[in-house]
Amino acid sequence: MDLSELRIFGRVAELGSFTRAADQLGMAKGRVSTVVQALEAKIGARLLQRTTRSVRLTPEGELFLVRCKELLTDAEQLQGMFQLAAGEIRGRVRIDMPSMFAQELIMPHLPALLAAHPQLDLGLSTNDRQVDMVREGFDALIRIGPLPDSDMVARPLGWLAMANLASPAYLAEHGTPHTLADLAGHRLVYHAGNLRNEEAALRCLVDGAPTVVPMRSALAVNNSAFMQSACLRGLGIMQAALPTNRRLLDSGQLVEVLPAFRRAPVPVTLLLPHRRHIAPRVDMVLNWIARVTRPSLLETPAPL
Question: How far apart are the first and last CA of the chain?
């Protein structure tokens, strides 16, 4: 087998489609299928489960894809070491991150990155759901909040300061709370990963101790951008990151309430697959992300 076969297999596995892979690779679909079949024959195992509607990795294919990426990374390090030494980033990088983090902290800096590195093929997935890094072909993930147990490699980026926010229209109708007891007359718009089980509550620090104040629910959502939109429309108070809402605070579209009762800062972490090497192009993009987001993050979890 050669590297071109591994690249073709990797693209089919990443996209879950022979047709899409062929389009991106500039090859005929039949040629892509033939290469993958020949690769399966060489290693003596079926790597992809094909149906009329989808293409999925078999258990053997999942294991092979991990090793395939390691080999391609090693080859890239050898082939691109001189270009990278000159500061050039080229090739494909795919990263998944929360939507508001991408919109407010990454997007403003993207034009300069892409202008400086025209050979970079950057793919950003922006949502608040959990993804399978290997199955979906991501080079790295950015996660906000506590991390579940996993074998992924974690690189801390910093901490996000949090705040209690509301729209001027909401405060004009319901009044501005000045104490935690005042929250009895207010409603909460909150982020809930599991919409069935999580209860509405404002979480804050009181004399340094974590405190939970139950509130009346206005709306539970599983998307941070939708939560922000609901808050802007006066549906309730929300707890959200200060940096991702800074523009709206500066413009007066949102107002901070109960500043003495902020939620504890939450960690921001880069997650990498548990393998020996990271492709140089990926490492350089991750270092760029760390650099451009640093001014917006706290170095420690100490509240402001």
Answer: 56
State how far the alpha carbon of 232 is from the alpha carbons of 12, 32, 93, 218, in Å.
42, 49, 34, 13
Helix (H, G, I), strand (E, B) or coil at 168: helix
Q: What is this structure's pTM?
A: 0.72
Query: CA distances (Å), 294 to each of 66, 158, 288, 291, in order?
Result: 31, 7, 10, 5
Residue-wise pLDDT tens digits, 219-248? 999 889 999 999 999 999 999 999 999 999
Cα atoms in the Cβ-side hemisphere of radius 13 Å centred on 186: 31
**Which residues lie closer than 8 Å to 278 by C-beta, 6 or more apart?**
73, 139, 272, 286
- Enumerate the β-bridge partners of residue 241: 162
Residue located via tokens 């590195």: 117
Per the CB < 8 A criterion, the answer to whether 266 and 163 are in contact is: no
Strands 140-144 and 266-272: antiparallel
Tell me the C-alpha distance between 280 and 282, whole Å: 5
**Can you list the domains of the chain with their CATH numbers?**
1-79 (1.10.10.10), 162-264 (3.40.190.290)
Contact at 8 Å (CB) between 166 and 255? yes
**Which tokens sit at 252?**
């007066």
Residue type, 291: R
